[in-house]
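Now for one record.
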Amino acid sequence: MSGELSSAGFFLARYLKTIMSIKSTIAAVAASPFLFAGAAFAGPYVNVESNLSYPDGDYTGATTDVAVGFDGSTSEGKIAYYIQGGPAFVHTESSDDTETELAGKAGASLAINEDLSVYGEISGISDEDSTGDDIINFGGKIGAKFVF
């Protein structure tokens, strides 16, 4: 038997390295609020969210976010806000591969009256372009919610 790692050994070593990296990232994100002692964050939370893609009825991929965040509102309650971030596991069906990226989002809503509110969100996730350079893919949404 040679001194080289088998493919199973290489996979296990890469898997353990990824897990340790993810744990370090989660710990750093969880500790970050203490760097902003003067900020008025109202409440921490953990958000696990999975978004799957089925164009034309065929599965093409999924992204699962594991985020630590903070949310709150103004004393009058008219404005609510949140910010969150953490690792995102991006699975692509075509290559049957899962990559670990970093993702985050921030948003706010404004109560116009007791029946109507408007909201907005900006999100981003790390990625790699076709030349291998690191990039951030940004997204956004705006909307209104009417309660009756």
User: Anything to note?
Assistant: The beta strands are 43-53, 61-73, 79-92, 97-111, 116-128, 134-146. Residues 7-31 form the longest helix (25 residues).
